[in-house]
User: What shape does this take?
Amino acid sequence: MASDALQKQVATKWQDSFNRLNRGYPGISGLMGFSEAWAIAADFLYPRELGDPPKDFNTQKVRSAFDVLIQCRMLPMLLESFVEDMRRRQHLITHDVMEFMAEYEASGDPDAIGRLILRLADWYMAWAPGGELGHTLSSAYIVNFQTHIFSILPPAFAGGFKRLIAATLALSTEPADAAGPSSVQDSKLWTSFELLGLADRYESLIASVCYEHIENHVLETCQGKWDEPMLSTLREWMADKVVPWMLLPYGRGAKTTEEARTMLQGVGSRFDFHVCKTLCDLRTKEIFDIIIDYPESSPALYDLKECLQRVDQRPQLVQALRKLNKRRLLHPGADTKDILTQYVSIIRCLRIIDPPGVLLFKVADPIRRYLRERPDTIRSIVASLVVDAESGDSLVDENEPIQPLQGPQVDDYMDPNWEPEPIDAGPEFRTNKPSDVISTLVSIYDSKDLFIKELQVLLAQRLLAIKDGNYEKERRNIEILKIRFGEAPLQVCEVMLKDMTDSRRIDQHVQSQTTSIMHPTIISRHFWPQLQSSKINMPGQLKDIQESYAREYTTFKPDKKLRWLSHLGSIHLDIELQDRTVTADVPPLEAAFIELFSEKDQWTVDELIARVGPVDRTTALKALLAWVDLGVLKEEEDSSFRLLEQADISGALRPSGSRVIMEDEPAVVSVQQQQAEQMKVFWKFIEGMLTNLGSLPLDRIQTMLKFAPGYDRTVDQLAAFMEAARREGLVTVREGMWKLNR
Amino acid sequence: MKVTVKRWHAIAQWQWDIGRTDEHGDAEEDVCGICRVPFEGCCPTCKVPGDDCPLIWGECSHVFHMHCLLKWIGTVASKQQCPMDRRPWVTAERKVTTNGS
Amino acid sequence: MSTVYTRRLSKELAEIQTETKPPIGIRLLKADDFETWIFEIEVLGDSLYRGERFGLKFRFDNSYPFSAPAVQFVVDSGMKAPVHPHVYTNGHICASILGDDWSPTLSVMAVCITIQSMLASCKRKELPEGNDTYVRTAPDNPKKTHFVYDDDTSPFPSNRV
Assistant: This one.
């Protein structure tokens, strides 16, 4: 029922097709020719089984067959039929893929993947139409082939492919253990990747293999290895081992070495960055222990410095170190000495990494604040200031020149070498020109007076302990300290030393008049730190010795007299008993007690105390037990002590002979005790001030206290003190004004 | 038993003997009326106490750091009087060795 | 800072603020430095100045304590000098211990107490003779004036030259 028009249209179409295929040849000979050409072309393109013998095609004939088809404008049709054929024959490839994947999944061996890829390349070559047939055909083929392949490759393939790449890289970097799979070594492998489009499709995967490889290598070779420079070794390794491999994925198609180098430049720099970043991460993680190991670990620090120039991870380093310090250093269990030692190492190490000191400033802040809170920090620093040949564990490097303390420095813009602060320096950053370690430690505190006081205490302890009159070491110490702290603050120490010299001179004179077994150190009371006062009365011959010496002294110095600090010093004595003689070097209190035993054989503790004077029971007992230890006294049940004229053999054998004096309590009052004492004095000031002036703001109290002799607290310390006073109900505060609570 | 003392390393403080017997010594310390520094300290211009900064006794029995007194006597306003009692200053012949500078 | 005179003054200040509190009627108003201190003086008990408060200003220099501090009453918008035969209306005081009778063993507090008792013992509230003339020509620093003492404000027995 088609209309005429329709019939006519169909007829015209048919005529057109016929004309196109027959191409104006007589009859249907053109059509026949077309049919033949189609057959040849289709047969040529037909996707064959790999095992089949290749058909013997006449290139000329195939070429002309294609020409005919092009003339007939039937190439698209041919292409369609070719694609359809490929689809129909795809099972052949699928079969192979399944087989190899099954093998891979069973063995986990990337070699299976490698062989699969080579096999796929074979399929690709076998089915490829050949480039001489025109771009359209070959590009259509590539797209279709790859689409097919990617559609049949199972998800496990990506993992296998990654392992294969890793294997090729391992082969390149560690050829030693290259009993690797054969397909991995196959030079065709990378061309196959290219052919199959795997190189492009898995580009990021290939890069990640390389990144991971670098990471593993850095961890393996560099972890814990701080005593030699590793970055240069790593870079050599990259150049020798990794770059040759990189030529495969990244230098594809390069014709000359020059060209390859250009192609590798970008990616090479990315990988070098990764080397630096990985090493930087590792060293950041290890930084605390690297610092502990300093100076052995300095190569690691130089590496880190170089890495940080390439990779900006300074904030991470600061954060990591602060965290580590907090966890491993700034806790109650750590010894102040250890904290100081580590702080000094941190100073030295961070100066290597970052000479301008920005990192140090950021890391040091919490340490300094923590140290400031610790009561024994100053004592520890001071102990390290005073060179002691025996202990030798000084914070100060002996090679470091002794120099005056340096205060915070102000930028000198006239300095031709002036440089702006680094960009990550915070607003509070103070240019910390490489000052010496001691200056840095002392600057933890706002005032160096505290150090001077602690120094005086330490020096006093050491001077008073000297028995042989040799204080040259202390003199040298003071000379060094004068360089650091200046002459004026050490003036009292000078007086202390002078007292030592004078004592010796006076003693020489006294001895020349009347020989005495006593050799006192005579001190100027206001120039020595507060000494623990205790007025014990020496009994018997001991008192005689004191008195006769004091007399001789007054004869020599008519306007002066001596006041004995009887509890200080030491006495060397022999105790002759019926069956033995005991020799001992003891504190005066012990000597006083034993002297009393020459009056009678048995004493109670209270009797002894009554004779000797103000001594607390514990101290007295300790002194008596020292004699018990020497086997001279025996403790009786009624808390009295009896002299053992004959050795008590029934008891445990006592180590006999001489005994070294135990210095348990320092004679000199520590700075801490002094401070508590002083704060009481300052309270009186504050009380007086507030009585007279009503209410005052904190800074005003601070200003006024500055006139108080010896006041050296910071306003923060004062605030803490006032707060304590408020808790005790002594003062009240309203809107910053302090008032006595009445 | 017999105790024989072989050697005694003792510690003592020196004090000026200003004629006052306060054998329970720790009590109030005497200070120079001029500088208000203890006698056993030194006058504000000295750095070393003792023989280098000696005391001076007046016949009026008042005692000062020698340097403090000499400085006072050196002023016109002093009229050569003891700062304590305004009597003409006469140095006592007591123990003092006034050859210090 | 730590010169001879500041050392002595800081000791005095310490005493004022702690150990020996000032006697009743004497109160420290200002001692922020070692140049100028101000005390409030009030005469308690039965006296001509009952209920009045005066400011006593001390000025020191480094000759202290070998020479007296410059001492005068504060005269400003809020405060007036006491009407007293030895006190000029500009605050200057004619007292021997501030001049000829000064001794280095005296102290700031001793001066305060002397001035307080000078007021307490006053029998007649009247201005010094020639007050107007003096005030017109007086130097800023009262120490530059040579006073002739006609009353005994000296802490010493009468052995003046």
